[in-house]
Every structure is written in C-alpha cells, then in structure tokens.
TrEMBL record:
The keyword Membrane applies. The keyword Chaperone does not apply. InterPro entries: HATPase_C_sf (IPR036890), HATPase_dom (IPR003594), His_kinase_dom (IPR005467), Sig_transdc_His_kin-like_C (IPR004358). GO terms for molecular function: ATP binding; protein histidine kinase activity. It comes from Pontibacter flavimaris. The lineage of its organism: Bacteria, Pseudomonadati, Bacteroidota, Cytophagia, Cytophagales. This is histidine kinase. Residues 189-393 form the Histidine kinase domain. Pfam families: HATPase_c. It catalyses: ATP + protein L-histidine = ADP + protein N-phospho-L-histidine. Gene3D superfamilies: Histidine kinase-like ATPase, C-terminal domain. The chain crosses the membrane at residues 12-34, 151-171.
Length: 393
C-alpha cells in the first residue's frame, strides 16, 4: 500500500521543481537585462570618451559647447574618473564623496584612488590620446542601478523562499492539526464502541467464574486475561488525545510483563529474549498501558516480518543519567534504506492486509506522549531490524 503522504510528497516535489524553474527564468531574464544595460553604459562611457577626445584635440568652436552640454553632461549615472597617463586624477563624475572627508582634498584623492582600483576590477580603462602623444584614461564602473539589478533576482529568490517556508510550515501545522483531530476522533469512537460489548463480556465472565461447573478450568483464567486485556485496550484508546499520566515504573518488569502476555498469543516458533545492562530496579517515566501498546505493535510487526519464525531480542541500556534505551531486534526481512524514513508514516505497510497504523501510532505515543524518541536504529535486508525506544528517567 502506498501512503497518501507519499503522493503529497510528489506534489511538493512538483511545486519545488516549478519554483526552481520560475527562479531560473527570473535570474536568466534579469541577467539579460543586466547585460543589455551594461552594454548601454559602456556605450555611454565610450561616447563620453570620444567627446572628451574631440574637446581636447579640436579647435574651439560652437561644437565644443554642444559636446560639453549634450554629451559630457548627459552622463548622470555612470561613475567615471579621468586621469593623466600616470593615473593622477584630473576629474571625476557621479561619485559620492563621504561627508567626513568632503573638505579634505588629500583624503578625497585617496578615496578616488580606491575607487579607481574597484573600477579596474570591473572594466578596462578607455584611452583618450592627446595630440602631443600623451594620453588620458577614463576609468568607470557600473552604475548604482546596474549594481542593484545584478542582485535583484537573488533578493527576490530569498523573499520567495521565505514566503514558501512560511507557507510550508503553516500547511504542515494545519495538516498535523487535522491529523490530530482524526486520531483523537477515531480513538474516542473506538473506545466508545468497545465499551458496551466489554461490559457484557465482564458480566458473563463473572457469571461463569461463579459457576461451580467451570471451577479450575484453565480456559477461564485465559478468558479473564483477555477480558482484562480488552479493558486495557479501551483505556489506551481513551488516553489518545488526553495528556497521559506518566509514573516512575520498573521498566524491566513492565517490558517483561508485556512480552509474557504477547508470547502466549503468537507463533510458538518465535522466541523472545529480554536483556538488561543495568540493575533490575531502574525506573523510567511511562504510562504502562500506552507503553505496552508500543511494545506490542513493534513486536507484532517483527513477527510479521519474520513470517512467524525467528527470534526477537529486547535489550535495555542506560543513556547517561537521564534516559534509557529499549532496543527491539528481530531476525526478519529487514527494511530497504529507501523505505526506512517511511515506516512510521500512517498508511505505510508491506502487508497485503492492514492499515499501516501500528508503527505510526507507536511513534506518536513515544514522541508526543512520553517526550521520548522511537526510530530505526539499524536495519539490513535479509538480516533484520532494530527499533530503539528512548525514554526519560
């Protein structure tokens, strides 16, 4: 069964691809505009240099006035610096001088020399020859508008990315809230539906228990265990959506009790081993009925993975002073690496029958209700899987 969430992940992937295409198109188009504007500014500076060359070498006439007013003065955006052949500054245009040095000629000269260094990094200077054989240089750099335009698409992408992240987290929060309502509603309704037949079963059990005809019948004891188990299951469903009470419990004993009950109700070809690396009196903060449910779900999945034949080993170790790890290892088919991240998704299952809710519910119980962690510690196809439960002490 393919979970609905994988379909949503495909939709997210499509959205991301579309966003990347839009971003790439934006950058490409902006770069085209930048290239055209850069060419225009270079032509403007070339025209400025030609006008300057004409003024230097031509005799005085009315054309010089026209060139000065209409060509040289028309450049109001591109920063330029005019120097002699030794790069001594003769003039500058469209360069903002900091106010703190505006009345200090030496510092202004140093500042403009620094600007010449920046201009050399962007463009080669334009040579303006003199009639006597000497030359002047026109240094220039991109205008402020062109510089801003170069970075505009990246700023735009950052803004779009921030908006997308906000939208994504809002969507995720909304989806989780919807999932929570579905979980709680389903659990409460299940507990309600179990209540009536359970009350009837308890009454019949007490009636049969009091009948001398069934005295010392082994089946009566097993029936009592199953009735009590149904009570626990009903309590579990009732706890979903509520804040469960966590108590300091002997984690080794609680785990062993859960295994003892489960072992009598599965294939006899499956062996269980419970091992502890700490003293038997170590406690952890758990809700027993919910914790039993987690152990049951993980072990039942392990039995299915082993096809009713193999071994399950439960090892408990201390993780520092504040937490305990419960490792559940089976000898089943293992989980492919590509599916490890999906095993806890509701609806994910490799069985022909089943809702794929067991591990999802187990993770929810540990992560949300016990403030712990449940994850796949190790898995290898053909060898088995280890699930780790981390609990607080």
């Amino acid at each position: 069964m393919i979970p609905i969430y994988s379909q949503k992940n495909r939709i997210k992937l499509v959205v991301v691809i579309i966003a990347l295409i839009i971003g790439a198109a934006t950058i490409t188009y902006t770069n085209i505009l930048v290239s055209k504007l850069s060419e225009r500014e270079q032509e403007l500076v070339q025209l400025y240099a030609k006008g300057l060359r004409y003024m230097i070498n031509a005799p005085s006439d009315d054309n010089i006035v026209f060139i000065e007013e209409e060509i040289l003065s028309s450049n109001t955006t591109v920063p330029v610096i005019l120097t002699d052949e030794n790069e001594n500054i003769l003039d500058s245009k469209n360069i903002s001088i900091p106010e703190n040095i505006s009345d200090k000629p030496e510092k202004i000269n140093d500042y403009l020399q620094g600007e010449i260094g920046k201009m050399k990094e962007q463009h080669a200077p334009i040579v303006v020859p003199w009639a006597e054989g000497s030359v002047n240089y026109v240094f220039y750099k991109d205008s402020e508008l062109l510089s801003q335009l170069r970075f505009y698409p990246y700023v735009q992408l950052i803004v779009i990315s921030c908006f997308a992240l906000v939208a994504y987290f809002a969507f995720s929060y909304s989806r989780r809230a919807e999932q929570n309502r579905v979980w709680v509603g389903l659990a409460k309704e299940t507990a309600h539906q179990l209540g009536t037949p359970l009350s009837s079963l308890m009454a019949w059990y007490e009636y049969i228990k009091g009948n001398p005809k069934f005295e010392n019948e082994p089946i009566l004891e097993e029936l009592g265990k199953d009735v009590r188990r149904l009570e626990i299951i009903t309590e579990r469903f009732s706890n979903i959506g509520s804040v469960p009470t966590l108590r300091d419990e002997n984690i080794l004993q609680v785990t062993q009790n859960a295994i003892n009950y489960l072992q009598n109700r599965i294939s006899r070809k499956v062996t269980f081993t419970v091992e502890s690396a700490f003293s038997p009196d170590i406690t952890a903060k758990v809700n027993v009925s919910l914790y039993d449910w987690v152990i049951e779900n993980i072990c039942k999945n392990a039995v299915d993975a082993m096809e009713g034949r193999g071994s399950i080993t439960i090892q408990m170790v201390l993780l520092g002073k504040s937490s305990i790890a419960v490792d559940i290892t089976d000898t089943g088919k293992g989980i492919p690496k590509s599916k490890v991240d999906s095993v806890f998704l509701p609806g994910f299952t490799t069985k022909k029958r089943g809702w794929g809710l067991g591990l999802a519910l187990a993770k929810r119980i540990i992560d949300n209700y016990h403030d712990g962690r449940l994850y796949v510690k190790w898995s290898e196809v053909g060898k088995g899987t280890t699930f780790r439960i981390v609990l607080n002490r």
